[in-house]
């Protein structure tokens, strides 16, 4: 487990359910562009009975960037199109793991036509 000063992945919670990923990351990139290397966005849902907030996971390059991000966005108020205010919360992500990038090409990629042709040949014969 990473120590408290080694953690670099945070979650930005209590975002408006209608906020888009591009809108949020335009706001984040205005101050923190190039200071993180991985991000994920989970959109929220809004219905008359239940509200699910949007959230964003961001993995920064350095722990110092995490502290500055938390200082700026913790308590930041987002306003949706109806005028409702949402106060964002920044926390360390429960899991500090980040998915690996796939560098290996899938061997089955592009083989669907080959398989369909051989199936047609079997039915014709």
UniProtKB/TrEMBL annotation:
One of its GO terms (cellular component) is nucleolus. One of its GO terms (molecular function) is mRNA binding. Its main location: nucleus. Keywords: Nonsense-mediated mRNA decay, Nucleus. One of its GO terms (biological process) is nuclear-transcribed mRNA catabolic process, nonsense-mediated decay. The keyword Nucleus applies. It is found in: Nucleus. CDD domains: RRM_like_Smg4_UPF3. It comes from the Eukaryota. Pfam families: Smg4_UPF3. Belongs to the RENT3 family. This is Regulator of nonsense transcripts UPF3.
């Amino acid at each position: 487990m990473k120590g408290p000063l080694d953690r670099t992945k945070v979650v930005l919670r209590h975002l408006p359910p209608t906020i888009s990923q591009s809108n949020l990351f335009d706001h984040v990139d205005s101050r923190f562009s190039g200071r993180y290397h991985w991000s994920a966005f989970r959109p929220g849902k809004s219905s008359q009975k239940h509200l699910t907030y949007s959230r964003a996971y961001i993995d920064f390059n350095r722990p110092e960037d995490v502290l500055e991000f938390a200082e700026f966005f913790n308590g930041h108020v987002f306003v949706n199109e109806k005028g409702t205010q949402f106060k964002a919360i920044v926390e360390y992500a429960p899991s500090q793991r980040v998915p690996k990038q796939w560098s290996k090409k899938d061997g089955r990629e592009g083989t669907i036509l080959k398989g369909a042709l051989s199936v047609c040949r079997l039915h014709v014969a």
